[in-house]
Amino acid sequence: MKEVYIVLDHTRTVLITITDGSLPSNVGGGGNVRNILRRCFHILKKNGWWDKLQMEGFLQIFEHHKLDLQGIYGKFNEYRSFDEIIKVEYERWLTTDDAQAKNLEGLIKKRKGDLTIDDWIVAMQSWGMSADKISEVCKQPIPGNLYYEISVRQEKVAKAPEKILYSTINLPETTNLYYQDGKQMSFDAKVISVYTNVHDKNKKNERNLIILD
Question: What is the pTM of this model?
Fold first, then answer.
């Protein structure tokens, strides 16, 4: 049952990210899309579910997600190449896992059966293997900090250091009303400070940034 939920959660994520403009790849956010999509393929194959679903049934899962999410996002715009993207990723996964499993077996022998976190990341990002497939080959559980470590390393490479434009340390924390009532469309608030704009080049030095409570 846990793996049923994994497949449903991952396919929903893949639907949202791809229709929003992302594509599966080996780097950055695209790498995350590829990893979770390949994890779906692996789980479906391992449990014999793919034999029943096949590609046509797998693509139907995304259609059911669209219907389920329509009440939140509205009707999804047509994405003509979506099905083809999924099909291409599936074919790549089939050829990648078989070929790279041999490389992984060689690495396992070299490490005497104990892979490091760096080995896991190389196998996933450079060889395109899913974490589940690596676990199956090396007979080790997936490290609990694997995805966190991947995320941290990606941020170091891709994310520029945050630039603090305005110091708000002296201000009280904002009350996020949308957490209390997600349907609330209007509210009353107090202006607790007004800042001079140093960000907008067209309105530089104007006092037009209002901080509400």
Answer: 0.60
